[in-house]
């Protein structure tokens, strides 16, 4: 790995491909086609892009039942325990509606309401991602969303992966469609003859899915535009080089565009980690992908002091941040920007990916400076409650109408003043 001293003026941020003009135009064309031609356009693009002709896009109960025949009991136990952990964590995020009253009869409050319908996009085709289902569906269920629709690209045989179907079934998801790409996002956003439109679309995907979500935003809500996965490790001289190398590679194997970065103030550790990454790469099944990621987007940054190393990870605002330090709980208050923070050498990032409970849908590409992990709140909306009594209007009405006239809105002022003149009780 590249070892880079942190100097004044060195930017640790990287630019992420936002799609070419040709890709954006292609996505725009697909979305408009789906909006105009519905199911016919969805099937046509599935045949054109996925090379699969799917006449029945809705997964049948028989397909799910058959999938259970191929999944062993040990796997089911793991999935069910992960579901329990993730659900328990997200239930602690639930917000309640509230009201407050004043002596003059004023009642103010906030009403929390779950969204009516949510679409969950699950990447597929050549690989299966059951964890993506859990992390996107469970907070929606905890929030109280009544209709959850799932779409995923079909495999070459026209079906979805068995573990995907079983995981969805374990969560009680019945409405699952074998479609992917921009056409799936269009179907969820605009609706077709067989797919009713949703209110929000969540879930990761390739550049076409990301661009499609970006373009339908406003018609529906979306979770975020996620970039390639990334991990930053903050380490001091007590850290285990083998552990760090393994964790860096666990992100690098995702994608050639993934980023794996170590920040430390210890040059000896930096050299040990660089050497260990090379050793571990040799036996990694996805060696080519991980090596490309490490070479193109990986780095080991050496800071002059540990405080400057902390400043560097805050500048990175990484999706995942691991603290391989002697006293991680002492360092935690100094961390301002990170999607998820893993404390101590035994809190490896994959634990959060699959099992611990917190959501693994996290802000990427520095957006942890202003964004948060996917949560129950992402599947609710809030309404303000305002109830003024006649007494309250009489007490404050002149001030309110005067405020309206500050903005030259005479009708606003008169609407309040009419009530000051009203003798009806």
Task: Describe the model.
The protein has 3 domains: about 5-10 and about 225-355, Nitrogenase molybdenum iron protein domain (Rossmann fold), CATH 3.40.50; about 20-90 and about 115-220, 3-Layer(aba) Sandwich (Rossmann fold), CATH 3.40.50.1980; about 390-420, no CATH class. The chain has 15 helices and 14 strands. It has helices at about 20-50, 60-70, 75-90, 130-145, 160-170, 180-190, 205-215, 240-250, 265-280, 285-295, 305-315, 330, 350-355, 390-405, 410-420; strands at about 5, 100, 105-115, 115-120, 145-150, 175, 200, 220, 230-235, 260-265, 300, 320-325, 340-345, 380-385. The strands form 3 sheets. The chain has a 6-stranded parallel β-sheet with strand order 1-11-10-9-12-13, sandwiched between helices. The protein has a 5-stranded parallel β-sheet with strand order 6-5-4-7-8, with helices on both faces. Helix 7 links the parallel strand 7 (about 200) and strand 8. Keywords: Amino-acid biosynthesis, Histidine biosynthesis, Metal-binding, NAD, Oxidoreductase, Zinc. Pathway: Amino-acid biosynthesis; L-histidine biosynthesis; L-histidine from 5-phospho-alpha-D-ribose 1-diphosphate: step 9/9. Its cofactor is Zn(2+). It comes from Salipaludibacillus neizhouensis.
